[in-house]
Amino acid sequence: MKQSEWWIRNEPPERSLAPIRQGRRIPQHYGTSVPERRVHHGGAESAAPRRRPFSRVTADDLVFFRGVLPGRVITDPDVLESCNVDWLKTVKGNSEVLLRPKTTDEVSQILRYCNARNLAVCPQGGNTGLVGGSVPVFDEIILSTALLNRVLAFDTISGILTCQAGCVLESLSEYADKQDFVMPLDLGAKGSCHIGGNVSTNAGGLRLLRYGSLRGTVLGLEVVLADGRVLNLLASLRKDNTGFDLKQLFIGSEGTLGVVTAVTILCPRKPRSINVAFLGCSSFQNLLKTFHMCRGMLGEILSAFEFLDASCMSLLENHLKLTNPISESPFYIVIETAGSNSAHDEEKLHNFLDKVMTSSLVTDGTVATEEAKIKALWSLRERVTEALRHDGYTYKYDISLPVEKIYDLVTDMKEHLGSRAKNVVGYGHVGDGNLHLNVISPTKDVGLLAAIEPYVYEWAARCRGSISAEHGLGLKKRNFIYYSKVPEAVALMANIKAMLDPRGILNPYKTLPDDAHSR
Amino acid sequence: MTARVLVGVKRVIDYAVKIRVKPDNTGVVTDGVKHSMNPFCEIAVEEAVRLKEKKLVQEVVAVSCGPQQVQETIRTALAMGADRGIHVEVSGKDYDSLGPLQVSKILAALAKKEEASLIILGKQAIDDDCNQTGQMTAALLDWPQGTFASELVIEGDKVKVVREIDGGLETIKLNMPVVVTADLRLNTPRYATLPNIMKAKKKKIANMKPGDLGVDMTSRVEVLRVDEPPQRQAGVKVESVEDLVSKLKEAGRI
Predict the structure, then answer these.
(1) B-chain residues near A325 (CB < 8 A)
(2) Helix axes of A455-462 and A406-417: crossing angle, nearest 10 degrees
(3) Which one of A308, A351, A426, B111 has the lowest number of neighbouring Cβ atoms within 10 Å?
(4) Is B130 at the interface with chain A, CB within 8 A?
(5) Is A73 on the interface with B (CB under 8 A)?
(6) What is the dihedral of CA B135, B137, B142, B143, to 10 degrees?
(7) ipTM for the complex?
(8) What is the H or E stretch that residue B200 is in?
(9) Does the CB of B171 have a partner CB in chain A at under 8 Å?
(10) Best A370, A374, A375, A377 residue to mutate vs chain B (most B CBs within 10 Å)
């Protein structure tokens, strides 16, 4: 047999000699066997990092900052309190300085200074991230994009929007709406998140199914590098094959390679007709068959396909007093269609609904065409995160899996955790193969965390899934990167980081694993 | 047990849509604009369906006046649980000048024809805010009326209505047949579920013209002009308290 085949059936020699870092063998995920059990140092991967030897902010530093940003240097502990804590209230930093630049030049001056002084910086947009990447770990200076909030240009023919990084996504949606366009992404956090943050985390969201990811819709960026250099990659071109596509490095780099200060993004035309259907399914198998049928019958007008389970619905009813519009079911689907002709779309949708109802794939459902009802139905999916927060301490997992396996992880996890967890729920972008798995306990529970991790990551790795489909790695998942990326890739990432930010001042302790820094 | 409830439903511009006045100021733009059932009419339908579910009424008939498109609105009422619909065709100039007086004449005629003993309407339509149809219908029929109902209870051949009024809540008892108009807090309308939407496709909608009911459609009201409200001026953001004080002084406010 060929040598390559031998390697697939047995561990290739190099792999078994894989470097053992900090007592942990890197997991093997080539081949079909279950990866070796990682030697788990009682949650070492999840533990907080040690503060690296950055400088500390002095009175002179404050004088400099106040010179660059008069009236926009905040040291008031009350204001800083909210910027030091993430939206989930699970991580808290100790920053004493919050900076609010208004222009790219100000950002450049700040970073040049901080780089020279070896001061760590935590870029912060809307602070809605879910992996602890948007708040300081120690005393990093918070660099907020809140005042970088101007729309710079909008081309009504091409739909290309250029704006500063601190524009709130919902404001951009409203702006685009007036011009008869929509933003190509939409997520539950839209009322607070900044487009710069969305780009830096390569946010996915509810419309990815239809419009694709930010890697396709972002046409250009303006980024300030760690040493203050301004990198102008703001092209408003659909097609530009001139050299390496540098912007792709910064998209999804979570603020560790550069601070995004402006974005050029392609907006699609606003659909004339939007319909939302909310359906109930008796089993996940039926849900998948419904998806298959949906793709076939609604194909070109399908703009979202989301699911939530019965536990999510109870949480929505109990904590947010929302009403279930249909009868109780084990699974619920939200389907959105968006097209240019309401009569055509309604016909397609009604044919589809007829078929799924008569074939009993779907047991109940309702449809909405009016804006208010559409919002109401969407809130049943968009507000799940909020409802979870009211139920207790939430452990969030955002996993990419082969679509058929998505709910298996939830059932396995329920069984695995038993009564240790108060609630285990699953929901998410089933159309994209993306599960949001959440485990709730009344309070923070280290024992529960040890039961969940690395079980959940190993499970995902076994299916060649991603341990973080869209949330990113941030602080919480930085050390688990090896479950989804080979060591050579992580090493190259570390090289790139060292090249762009040699002193490591940009959003330290995030995204790359702790051992990537030991060289 | 009461035989029949008549529910009036009106097709209006959806309340979430931004209204635009026509350039010639004769009215608002309705072409291509999203329409839906008047929210108060939805509440009326919901109440009627609940009475049927409690077996206090036998049949719920949904009525709408207007052009072909109002059939959609009647179908929505059927999907919510109404048994059958009546579409009174009114189009063209007659539809433009259609108002509470004409509608109440139609409803009064239908109530007699259908031998209804209860009419439930929305308290007002969100496009004209007239709040007159229920009252006029009751007057034409010489029936008692319970308007702005936040609670409706059938007790034998009497109806108890709790009304929302300026001073609080007023409870009245009326002898059937009655006209009741629904206020916001009467109930929360249900979502029309798919099984019902499909059943509704098979329910009957009868067509008729105002002439068939002997109703004269002439209007005594003429709309002269429609204008947008004055534009709201943008506010000014200030950076400091001193700024605020000086701006207020400039504007002559202090």
Answers:
(1) 190-191, 193
(2) 150
(3) A351
(4) no
(5) no
(6) -70
(7) 0.77
(8) helix B194-202
(9) no
(10) A370
Residue that has been written with the tokens 């927060």 in this structure: A389
pLDDT at res. B140: 97
CB count, 10 Å around CB of B163? 19
Are B193 and A325 in contact (CB < 8 Å)? yes
Tell if the CB–CB gap between A357 and B36 is shorter than 8 Å.
Answer: no
Using a 10 angstrom Cβ sphere, with 0-12 exposed, 13-18 middle and 19 or more buried, the burial of residue B125 is: buried
How many Cα atoms within 13 Å fall on the side-chain side of residue A158?
15
How does DSSP classify residue B122? E
The structure tokens 């072409």 sit at B31
Helix axes A342-358, A284-298, angle to 10 degrees: 150
pLDDT per residue as tens digits for the range B97-123: 999 999 999 999 999 999 999 999 999
Element containing residue A210 per DSSP (H, E): helix A208-211
Cβ neighbour number for residue B64 with a 10 Å cutoff = 27
Contact B197 A354 (CB under 8 A): no
Q: Does A321 touch chain B (CB under 8 A)?
A: no
CB nearest to A71's CB, from B195, B198, B239: B239
A279 contacts chain B (CB < 8 A) = yes
Inter-chain contacts counted by CB atoms under 8 A, chains A and B: 48
A90 three-state secondary structure? coil
Tell me if the pTM is above 0.90: no
The answer to whether B193 contacts A71, with C-beta atoms less than 8 Å apart, is no
pLDDT tens, position by position, B118-157: 999 999 999 999 999 999 999 999 999 999 999 999 998 9
Residues A495, A429: contact at Cβ < 8 Å?
no
Other C-beta atoms closer than 10 Å to the C-beta of A519 total 8
Q: Is B133 exposed, middle or buried (0-12, 13-18, 19+ CB in 10 A)?
A: buried
Residue A469 per-residue DSSP state: S
Number of neighbouring beta carbons within 10 Å of residue A18: 16
